[in-house]
Design goal:
heterodimer, A: mainly alpha, 22 helices, 2 strands, B: mainly alpha, two-stranded antiparallel sheet, 27 helices, 4 strands, about 5% strand, globular
């Protein structure tokens, strides 16, 4: 799109950030209403600018599309280099939709520092789009790290009572991982004789020992981010303390940065190391699926339960990526998108309850269906999706990963399929204790069912979750070429 | 001319496709209308819409059935679900003699249940929701049976499980109901776990999930091996079949995954009839019959099926003997009859299994709905100890119950006789390992079936009414005398009773010995017990007449007589039953299986989760690794503080030192 003054991808990245800054500048006291509306317009525009990109995107092309490149720091040959493939596209879609939901979710709930709250989310949304669009490793790294700042603020300012501990744990955990990434990127820059272009890294021959070190350095960042067992313990704490919107973005989008990193950097840049260490990653993924499934079962806090369920579901992503076949990788990507919608919906559901009762403890609920039937019905859709029921998006990813795992090893598939039982057990047991049964207290009896705002956002998510479950083909088609390309790149030895 | 014919052909398949789609979707439309607009269209609006949906589906099913009889089978895709790794995953229909028979069974029982529900649920606040669910169930079940591939089969499979979950927990305020629905879903998930692994194996080794394409390769698959435990090769097809059958064990409630079915009786009675007796629980039987081209190549899998089936047929029947809740007796009877069907599958008598599936659907739906009628008449009393003498008070219900019970115990000329006798005869002829045990189990099962059926019959319908002298019961309810149910309730009963009487005699010839299943069920010549049995078959009349001289008939009569003696003629003998006390306790405790599951699986999983969380996550990872490194950093911080002297010159020195180090590294790197 050379005719455009500003590139489509730049628009996708910078429009939300621009609106974030606008919201900050207009956000004096007493203007909360204006701030909300401007934020909503900003988030919707952010989604609308994706429409032409989605329609013009060529699913058959193996190269990156909508490429923009401007020199940024000439001395180190760092470029403002953007471009997308199907993988980026589908994750950007997830991000922009999530942003709209988050704006709606905070509408009446956030009354403290409204403009800063919305600005954080809008800016975060732009930065995340930046990660998904970057074709320059340094630019990628800057965006990747920059996501920490708004999220740190969101948890630290609008979070629960223990927010400072959670925010710092979140920050240090993920920062520690990603510093090693920087070292790896600088090494690659040296090795490629002065390039930070990711595409250059793809073609770069790298000796075996260096590959292993680079893989471990990248792994440190992405494994923490996604998060994998045993570096997952920051996630439940962060979720419990984060405000609803923060949990939604964290689970729906930020975790996916880890999976994206594996696919965009680890596999194509150091394919030999990735294949060599795949058994280890697979083992960790299967531990996550089974071990965390059991841990989720006994959680008493709804948010913690969903957080653990997220870790278990992310185990499918890493498993699907590291079994190196098309089913697995497609499944992993679909799982990322699907989990984005489902976890967002579940956190919104918990938010709906929390706004009314101010508790996340399962024990404080019971019999919610009696006073909130509409909510109960929608919540059930998401609970079933989380349990991987066919006909919902939750099934698609798990199905393909299990199918892919079977061509690797019967027992991989066996362990992964355990989620059929465990996922249903922890999700539906929670649902039963919260929603079904006699009304347990007056507060439950007095609950008001979802209002129009809450109903519409959950309904949209329900449509998406069921729509993807019944007809995932548009999504699998979009990412099909990316998967083939990544698999091809990672099958060639680079010694 | 040829193009014209081709055009016609295309048009033909198009209209056929529309017909299939409409048959499946009509109940879904009904379900959505009642579900989303139930308030607006009101109660009668809801049941009219739902019933029209199912009625359309039934009429089309009959039309499709006739079509199929005329040779118009269909196998084609509706839409492509996804294309991944070069494999296309489709949603499509396979309309043949097997699926069209199932469609008729499903839609006809469903229609009867829909009509019956008008009466049974008339005072329930969830009336519209109930119709929405049962119509949704009909849709899901149709998608299951009409599928032409494993993926859609799994879709339908889980969807009926979902509706079953919703319906068992229909009265969501009842603790027992919401416990039962969670249990049902989870136990079914255990089965689905195996089922999905089986599907994954099929996809991996056959490269497709399309039935026809997979079955074409079954002979090749049968010679392949798979390594499961270090170096030992297993027959691939055995592993596939056993995995798939584990799915069937969940859905069709076979031992030891049967534990959810008795508890599912917490749901309203119409769904016990529709889902937990006539249709959903037979999905596993249908599935194995559909997979006959795979199962035939694994004698070991068939043997496994046979043993599981025989255990279920006999031991679940025994539990029916000690139940006092009228619905639970019928539930255990269902388990036992599902066992009979599974036994038939195990001896490769797939057609006999399907035949029993059909007759059982009619007479078991009848027995459940009749039990429901008794429950309405008794004002929601389900305990048989407080019934008795209802024959005079509820004559229609009595009459149809008697017919249903006689059909169940296999009284000659009734439908159950033809199907059950066929199973027993084929088991006797079979030489599959385990057939001896199975023959013993199904024969003894006949006696047990007759005993619990007529125990129920005598306790409910004969003797004196015991409803008024119940102790400790809510007296306010028992003042009303039992009364016959309204016509919307008894008309479906009568229809089902007619089907229970005649459906066996008219269909045994075509289904078992004709060529009805010739193209859809595959049986190896060496396993073909049905054909051997056919050599002795001389028409339904002769078989019925001969039925009076067979061992099963006399075993059944012995059961009826025992029941008559103990529960009607001389009730005092019941006091002498204390010699069987340990046995009765074993039965009452359901072989302690529920207790074991509760302790081992439910409690065990929670303890394991607790251990992993508290020790793994909190102590080791967070306590030792994360906070440990934080402490380490803090310690280093205190040490480092000593260097922070505050003198600029010190800092400058250290900066120079650092820069020097960095430059050195840089140079060495080059």
């Amino acid at each position: 799109m050379s005719t455009n003054i500003i590139g489509s991808l730049s628009l996708i990245v910078w429009l939300p950030i621009f609106f974030g800054i606008v919201v900050l500048t207009i956000g004096q006291d007493g203007r909360e209403h204006l701030v909300r509306w401007v934020s909503l317009v900003g988030s919707i525009l952010g989604a609308l600018v994706l429409v032409p990109v989605w329609t013009q995107f060529d699913q058959t092309k193996t190269e990156f599309q909508f490429v923009e490149s401007i020199p940024w720091i000439d001395t180190f040959n760092i470029n403002y280099h953007l471009g997308i493939d199907g993988l980026s596209l589908i994750l950007i879609l997830l991000n922009v939709v999530t942003t709209i939901l988050v704006v709606i979710a905070g509408w009446e709930v956030i009354t403290k520092r409204v403009s800063q709250y919305y600005a954080s989310f809008l800016i975060l949304s732009g930065i995340i789009n930046g990660v998904f669009c970057s074709l320059d490793a340094m630019l990628f790294y800057v965006f990747f790290e920059a996501t920490l700042i708004p999220m740190f603020l969101i948890i630290g300012i609008w979070g629960g009572p223990n927010r400072v501990y959670a925010a710092i744990k979140f920050f240090l955990y993920t920062l520690a991982g990603s510093l090693l990434t920087l070292v790896a990127l600088i090494y690659l820059y040296r090795l490629s004789a002065g390039s930070f272009s990711i595409a250059d890294f793809y073609l770069l021959p790298i000796p075996q020992s260096a590959q292993l070190l680079i893989f471990i350095a990248l792994f440190a960042a992405f494994a923490v981010k996604i998060p994998m067992w045993p570096v997952h313990t920051w996630l439940p704490d962060a979720h419990v303390e984060a405000p609803t919107g923060g949990s939604v973005v964290l689970a729906a989008v930020m975790l996916k940065l880890g999976g994206y990193g594996f696919l965009r950097l680890s596999l194509p840049i150091v394919p030999d190391a990735a294949r060599e260490l795949a058994p280890l990653v697979i083992a960790l993924s299967l531990i996550a699926i089974v071990y965390i499934g059991f841990v989720a079962l006994i959680q008493r806090d709804m948010k913690k339960l969903i957080a653990y369920s997220s870790i278990s579901h992310m185990g499918f992503v890493t498993l699907g990526i590291f079994i190196f076949n098309a089913e697995g990788m497609q499944g992993a990507i679909i799982q990322m998108v699907s989990h984005g919608f489902i976890s967002a919906a579940l956190f919104l559901c918990v938010g709906v309850l929390y706004d009314r009762i101010h508790s996340r403890q399962i024990a404080d609920y019971g019999g919610v269906v009696n006073s909130m039937p509409k909510f109960a019905a929608l919540f059930l859709v998401f609970a079933m999706a989380n349990a991987g029921l066919p006909g919902t998006s939750g099934f698609v990813g798990e199905f393909f990963v299990i199918m892919g795992a079977m061509s690797n090893n019967f027992w991989f598939a066996f362990a992964a399929a355990m989620t059929l039982i465990l996922g249903a057990a922890y999700t539906l047991w929670m649902y039963k204790r919260v929603v079904f049964g006699q009304v347990t207290s007056d507060r439950i009896a007095d609950l008001k069912d979802v209002n129009a705002r809450e109903f519409s956002m959950l309904l949209v998510l329900a449509f998406v979750v069921i729509g993807v479950g019944l007809y995932p083909k548009p999504f699998t088609d979009v990412i099909g070429t990316s998967v083939t390309t990544i698999l091809e790149l990672s099958s060639v030895s680079k010694y | 001319m040829s193009t014209m014919l081709a055009d016609l052909g295309v048009k033909d398949t198009m209209t056929n496709m529309n017909m299939y789609l409409l048959a499946a979707l009509a109940p879904l439309i009904g379900s959505m209308l009642t579900g989303f607009f139930g308030r607006k269209i009101g109660r009668s609006g809801s049941h009219v819409v739902a019933i029209i949906g199912v009625l359309v589906s039934l009429i089309l099913s009959i039309k499709i059935f006739i079509d199929v009889l005329n040779g118009n089978s269909f196998n084609g895709s509706v839409y492509t679900w996804a294309v991944v790794g070069g494999v296309s995953f489709e949603v499509g229909f396979l309309i043949d003699r097997l699926s069209s028979l199932m469609m008729i069974v499903v839609t006809s029982v469903s229609l009867m249940v829909h009509v019956y529900t008008i009466g049974y649920m008339k005072d329930d606040p969830g009336y519209q929701r109930f119709f929405s669910y049962i119509s949704l169930f009909t849709f899901a079940m149709l998608m299951l049976v009409m599928s032409n591939n494993f993926l859609q089969l799994f879709f339908g499979w889980e969807a009926v499980g979902l509706v079953s979950y919703l319906l068992i927990g229909f009265w969501y305020k009842k603790d027992s109901a919401i416990y039962a629905n969670l249990k049902a879903f989870l136990v079914n998930r255990v089965g689905d776990f195996g089922f999905l692994l089986g599907i994954a194996l099929v996809l991996h080794f056959a490269g497709t999930l399309d039935y026809a394409a997979v079955f074409d390769q079954s002979e090749d698959l049968s010679v392949r091996q798979i390594e499961l435990f270090g170096g030992v090769g297993w027959s691939l097809i055995t592993v596939i079949c056993i995995c798939l059958f584990i799915g069937a064990m969940g859905k069709s409630a076979q031992f030891p995954l049967h534990v959810w079915l008795p508890d599912s009786m917490e749901g309203p009675t119409p769904i016990s009839a529709l889902i937990h007796a006539a249709t959903m629980v037979t999905a596993g039987i249908f599935m194995v019959a559909r997979m006959s081209p795979l199962f035939e190549y694994s004698e070991m899998a068939l043997s496994f099926v046979l043993i599981i089936g025989s255990i279920t047929a006999l031991f679940m029947g025994l539990l029916g003997l000690v139940q006092n809740d009228i619905k639970r007796v019928v539930a255990y009877s269902t388990l036992s009859q599902l066992g009979y069907m599974t036994v038939a599958l195990g001896v490769s008598a797939y057609s006999a299994a399907m035949f029993h599936l059909m007759t059982h659907a009619f007479f078991k739906a009848l027995l459940f709905l009749a039990a429901g009628s008794v429950i309405i008449g008794m004002h929601h009393q389900q305990d048989m100890r407080f019934m008795g003498g209802l024959r005079r008070k509820m004559p229609i219900t009595w009459m149809v119950s008697l017919i249903g019970s006689l059909a169940l115990i296999g009284f000659p000329f009734l439908s159950g006789f033809y199907s059950k006798d066929s199973i027993i005869e084929t088991v006797q002829l079979s030489s599959i390992p385990g057939a001896g045990f199975a023959y013993f189990a199904v024969l003894l099962g006949v006696f047990v079936t007759a005993l619990y059926s007529f125990r129920m019959y005598f306790l409910v319908f004969e003797g004196n009414y015991r409803g008024n002298n119940q102790s400790g019961q809510d007296v306010s309810e028992s003042h009303h005398d039992p009364h016959e149910s309204p016509p919307v309730v008894w008309i479906p009963l009568v229809v089902l009773a007619i089907l229970s009487v005649f459906s066996g005699a008219i269909s045994i010839q075509p289904i078992l010995f004709g060529d009805y299943f010739k193209d859809v069920i595959f049986v190896l010549g060496s396993h073909d017990v049905v054909a051997q049995f056919g050599e002795h078959f001389h028409g339904w009349l002769a078989m019925g007449m001969h039925g009076f001289q067979t061992l099963p008939f006399w075993l059944a009569m012995a059961g009826v007589l025992t029941a008559w003696f103990v529960f009607y003629y001389s009730p005092k003998t019941r006091n002498k039953l204390s010699v069987f006390a340990p046995l009765i306790r074993l039965f009452e405790q359901k072989y302690f299986l529920d207790k074991f599951n509760e302790w081992f699986f439910a409690l065990g999983a929670r303890s394991l989760g607790d251990l992993l969380w508290k020790v793994g996550d909190q102590k080791i990872i967070d306590g030792f690794l994360v906070n440990g490194s934080a402490k380490l950093v803090a310690k280093m911080g205190t040490r480092l503080r000593r260097i922070q002297t505050g003198f600029i010159s010190h800092y400058a020195f250290i900066m120079i030192l650092g820069a020097f180090t960095l430059v050195t590294i840089w140079l060495f790197g080059k």
